Amino acid sequence: MMVMVVRDQSSQPQDITAGVPQGSIIGPTIFISFISDLLSTIRQSHECTTVGSWADVSLNGTSENQQQEAETDQDQDLDQRDVPERGSCPNGWFYFNYFSSCYRFVPDTQTWIEAELSCQQLATGGHLASIHWKEQNHFIELLLKAEQSNNHVWIGLSDRHKEGTFLWTDGSLSDFTNWHLGEPDNYKGRENCVVINSEKWNDVPCTGKSPFICSYKPHDW
Question: Considering the domain boundaries, does residue 180 fall inside one?
Protein backbone atom coordinates (compact mmCIF):
# COMPACT_ATOMS: atom_id res chain seq x y z
CA MET A 1 0.00 0.00 0.00
CA MET A 2 1.43 3.39 -1.01
CA VAL A 3 1.13 6.43 1.25
CA MET A 4 0.69 9.89 -0.19
CA VAL A 5 1.78 12.81 1.94
CA VAL A 6 0.06 16.06 1.08
CA ARG A 7 1.75 19.37 1.72
CA ASP A 8 -0.78 22.18 1.72
CA GLN A 9 0.48 25.26 -0.12
CA SER A 10 -2.16 27.49 1.41
CA SER A 11 -2.64 28.37 5.05
CA GLN A 12 -6.44 28.27 4.87
CA PRO A 13 -8.36 25.01 5.41
CA GLN A 14 -10.52 23.86 2.51
CA ASP A 15 -14.20 23.07 2.85
CA ILE A 16 -14.50 19.58 1.42
CA THR A 17 -18.29 19.85 1.34
CA ALA A 18 -18.34 22.96 -0.85
CA GLY A 19 -21.00 22.65 -3.54
CA VAL A 20 -23.03 20.06 -1.63
CA PRO A 21 -26.50 21.39 -0.62
CA GLN A 22 -26.81 21.60 3.16
CA GLY A 23 -28.94 18.79 4.62
CA SER A 24 -28.91 16.76 1.39
CA ILE A 25 -28.33 12.99 1.43
CA ILE A 26 -25.40 11.90 -0.72
CA GLY A 27 -26.01 8.63 -2.59
CA PRO A 28 -23.23 6.21 -3.53
CA THR A 29 -22.90 7.44 -7.13
CA ILE A 30 -22.88 11.09 -6.18
CA PHE A 31 -20.44 10.39 -3.33
CA ILE A 32 -17.96 8.58 -5.64
CA SER A 33 -18.17 11.43 -8.14
CA PHE A 34 -17.70 13.93 -5.33
CA ILE A 35 -14.60 12.11 -4.01
CA SER A 36 -13.17 11.89 -7.56
CA ASP A 37 -13.59 15.64 -8.04
CA LEU A 38 -12.11 16.29 -4.59
CA LEU A 39 -9.00 14.24 -5.33
CA SER A 40 -8.57 15.99 -8.65
CA THR A 41 -8.76 19.35 -6.89
CA ILE A 42 -6.20 18.25 -4.31
CA ARG A 43 -3.77 17.08 -6.99
CA GLN A 44 -3.99 20.43 -8.75
CA SER A 45 -3.64 22.63 -5.68
CA HIS A 46 -1.15 20.69 -3.54
CA GLU A 47 2.30 19.27 -3.81
CA CYS A 48 2.08 15.47 -3.54
CA THR A 49 4.97 13.25 -2.67
CA THR A 50 4.99 9.45 -2.70
CA VAL A 51 6.93 8.22 0.29
CA GLY A 52 6.85 4.47 -0.23
CA SER A 53 5.12 1.59 1.48
CA TRP A 54 3.21 1.92 4.74
CA ALA A 55 5.20 2.15 7.97
CA ASP A 56 4.52 3.33 11.49
CA VAL A 57 5.86 6.84 11.84
CA SER A 58 6.71 8.55 15.11
CA LEU A 59 5.93 12.16 15.87
CA ASN A 60 9.50 13.20 15.10
CA GLY A 61 9.20 11.86 11.56
CA THR A 62 11.40 8.80 12.09
CA SER A 63 10.00 5.41 11.14
CA GLU A 64 10.08 2.50 13.57
CA ASN A 65 12.44 0.63 11.23
CA GLN A 66 14.82 3.60 11.12
CA GLN A 67 14.83 3.79 14.91
CA GLN A 68 15.60 0.07 15.17
CA GLU A 69 18.45 0.41 12.64
CA ALA A 70 19.90 3.33 14.59
CA GLU A 71 19.75 1.34 17.83
CA THR A 72 21.43 -1.64 16.12
CA ASP A 73 24.22 0.60 14.79
CA GLN A 74 24.71 2.01 18.28
CA ASP A 75 24.92 -1.49 19.79
CA GLN A 76 27.47 -2.47 17.14
CA ASP A 77 29.54 0.61 17.94
CA LEU A 78 29.50 -0.35 21.64
CA ASP A 79 30.53 -3.89 20.77
CA GLN A 80 33.39 -2.58 18.64
CA ARG A 81 34.60 -0.38 21.49
CA ASP A 82 34.62 -3.47 23.73
CA VAL A 83 36.84 -5.53 21.42
CA PRO A 84 40.33 -5.92 22.94
CA GLU A 85 43.02 -3.97 21.08
CA ARG A 86 46.76 -4.44 20.99
CA GLY A 87 47.39 -0.77 21.78
CA SER A 88 51.03 -0.17 22.77
CA CYS A 89 51.54 -3.80 23.78
CA PRO A 90 53.92 -6.17 21.94
CA ASN A 91 52.63 -8.74 19.49
CA GLY A 92 50.57 -11.37 21.26
CA TRP A 93 49.48 -8.99 24.05
CA PHE A 94 46.28 -6.95 24.37
CA TYR A 95 45.90 -3.54 25.98
CA PHE A 96 43.34 -2.56 28.62
CA ASN A 97 43.44 1.24 28.61
CA TYR A 98 41.54 1.84 31.87
CA PHE A 99 44.25 0.06 33.83
CA SER A 100 47.13 0.77 31.40
CA SER A 101 48.02 -2.93 31.33
CA CYS A 102 48.86 -5.52 28.70
CA TYR A 103 47.32 -9.01 28.78
CA ARG A 104 48.29 -12.26 27.12
CA PHE A 105 46.44 -15.55 26.98
CA VAL A 106 48.68 -18.61 27.11
CA PRO A 107 46.94 -21.80 25.91
CA ASP A 108 49.57 -24.17 27.36
CA THR A 109 48.19 -26.00 30.39
CA GLN A 110 50.30 -25.64 33.53
CA THR A 111 49.86 -25.78 37.29
CA TRP A 112 49.09 -22.47 39.00
CA ILE A 113 52.64 -21.87 40.24
CA GLU A 114 54.12 -22.90 36.86
CA ALA A 115 51.79 -20.44 35.15
CA GLU A 116 52.86 -17.62 37.52
CA LEU A 117 56.54 -18.31 36.80
CA SER A 118 55.85 -18.37 33.05
CA CYS A 119 54.19 -14.93 33.25
CA GLN A 120 57.24 -13.56 35.06
CA GLN A 121 59.44 -14.89 32.25
CA LEU A 122 57.24 -13.52 29.47
CA ALA A 123 57.52 -9.90 30.60
CA THR A 124 59.38 -7.79 33.12
CA GLY A 125 56.86 -7.14 35.88
CA GLY A 126 54.62 -9.89 34.49
CA HIS A 127 52.31 -11.95 36.71
CA LEU A 128 49.13 -13.95 36.44
CA ALA A 129 46.41 -11.37 35.81
CA SER A 130 44.82 -9.51 38.72
CA ILE A 131 41.29 -8.11 38.41
CA HIS A 132 39.98 -5.02 40.19
CA TRP A 133 36.85 -3.89 38.33
CA LYS A 134 33.82 -5.38 36.66
CA GLU A 135 34.92 -3.81 33.36
CA GLN A 136 38.34 -5.38 33.67
CA ASN A 137 36.76 -8.75 34.39
CA HIS A 138 34.59 -8.35 31.28
CA PHE A 139 37.63 -7.35 29.19
CA ILE A 140 39.43 -10.55 30.16
CA GLU A 141 36.37 -12.60 29.23
CA LEU A 142 36.29 -10.87 25.81
CA LEU A 143 39.95 -11.66 25.37
CA LEU A 144 39.37 -15.32 26.20
CA LYS A 145 36.51 -15.44 23.69
CA ALA A 146 38.74 -13.83 21.06
CA GLU A 147 41.27 -16.58 21.72
CA GLN A 148 38.43 -19.15 21.52
CA SER A 149 39.09 -20.42 25.01
CA ASN A 150 36.18 -22.16 26.75
CA ASN A 151 38.32 -23.60 29.55
CA HIS A 152 38.91 -22.57 33.13
CA VAL A 153 41.85 -20.18 33.04
CA TRP A 154 44.27 -19.34 35.85
CA ILE A 155 44.29 -15.84 37.28
CA GLY A 156 46.70 -14.57 39.96
CA LEU A 157 44.49 -15.01 43.04
CA SER A 158 45.07 -17.59 45.77
CA ASP A 159 44.83 -18.17 49.52
CA ARG A 160 47.80 -20.53 49.62
CA HIS A 161 49.47 -18.68 52.46
CA LYS A 162 46.42 -18.32 54.72
CA GLU A 163 43.09 -20.03 54.22
CA GLY A 164 40.38 -17.52 53.39
CA THR A 165 42.79 -14.64 52.78
CA PHE A 166 43.04 -14.25 49.01
CA LEU A 167 46.02 -12.35 47.61
CA TRP A 168 47.13 -11.39 44.09
CA THR A 169 50.58 -12.47 42.92
CA ASP A 170 51.36 -8.91 41.73
CA GLY A 171 50.86 -7.60 45.27
CA SER A 172 47.80 -5.48 44.42
CA LEU A 173 44.82 -5.16 46.74
CA SER A 174 42.06 -7.76 46.70
CA ASP A 175 39.31 -5.17 46.22
CA PHE A 176 37.00 -6.94 43.75
CA THR A 177 35.63 -10.48 43.43
CA ASN A 178 33.22 -12.23 41.08
CA TRP A 179 32.74 -15.72 42.49
CA HIS A 180 30.44 -18.40 41.16
CA LEU A 181 27.47 -19.00 43.44
CA GLY A 182 28.67 -20.96 46.48
CA GLU A 183 32.34 -20.23 45.85
CA PRO A 184 34.96 -20.22 47.19
CA ASP A 185 34.24 -23.45 49.06
CA ASN A 186 37.73 -25.01 49.46
CA TYR A 187 36.28 -28.40 48.51
CA LYS A 188 37.90 -31.20 50.55
CA GLY A 189 40.27 -28.59 52.00
CA ARG A 190 42.54 -28.52 48.96
CA GLU A 191 41.28 -25.65 46.74
CA ASN A 192 43.54 -22.64 47.11
CA CYS A 193 44.02 -21.22 43.59
CA VAL A 194 41.54 -19.39 41.40
CA VAL A 195 40.36 -19.82 37.82
CA ILE A 196 38.00 -17.70 35.71
CA ASN A 197 35.34 -19.03 33.33
CA SER A 198 32.47 -17.07 31.78
CA GLU A 199 33.47 -14.09 33.95
CA LYS A 200 32.90 -16.09 37.16
CA TRP A 201 35.62 -17.29 39.54
CA ASN A 202 36.14 -20.61 41.30
CA ASP A 203 38.76 -21.95 43.70
CA VAL A 204 40.35 -25.19 42.56
CA PRO A 205 43.42 -27.30 43.49
CA CYS A 206 46.63 -25.47 42.56
CA THR A 207 48.13 -28.68 41.17
CA GLY A 208 45.58 -28.94 38.36
CA LYS A 209 46.67 -27.84 34.90
CA SER A 210 44.93 -25.04 33.00
CA PRO A 211 45.73 -22.35 30.43
CA PHE A 212 46.35 -18.93 31.95
CA ILE A 213 46.35 -15.20 31.39
CA CYS A 214 49.30 -12.94 32.19
CA SER A 215 49.43 -9.18 32.64
CA TYR A 216 51.96 -6.40 33.09
CA LYS A 217 52.12 -2.61 32.87
CA PRO A 218 53.87 -1.37 29.66
CA HIS A 219 56.26 0.95 31.51
CA ASP A 220 57.62 -2.14 33.27
CA TRP A 221 58.55 -3.72 29.93
Answer: yes
Nearest Cα neighbor of 174 from 161, 187, 185 is: 161
Q: How much is the pLDDT for 188?
A: 86
Q: What's the rounded Cα separation, in Å, for the pair 86 and 103?
A: 9
Number of domains in the chain: 2
pTM for this predicted structure: 0.60
Neighbours of 24 (CB within 10 A): 9
User: 163-201: per-residue pLDDT in tens?
Assistant: 999 999 999 999 999 999 999 999 888 999 999 998 999
Q: Which residue(s) pair with 49 in the sheet?
A: 5
DSSP for 20-52, please give it: SPTTPPPPHHHHHHHHHHHHHHHHHHEEEEEEE
- Tell whether 44 is covered by a domain: yes
3-state secondary structure of 12: coil
Q: Which residues contact 177 (CB under 8 A, 6 or more apart)?
A: 166, 201
- Asked if 24 and 129 sit in the same domain, the reply is no
For residue 85, the model assigns a pLDDT of: 55
**What does the pLDDT look like over 65-96, one tens digit per residue?**
555 554 444 334 334 444 455 567 888 899 88
Domain region containing 146? 94-220
Q: Are 152 and 198 part of one and the same domain?
A: yes
**Cα 157 to Cα 142: distance, rounded to the nearest angstrom:** 20
The H or E element containing residue 120 is helix 112-122
Beta bridge partners of 127: 215
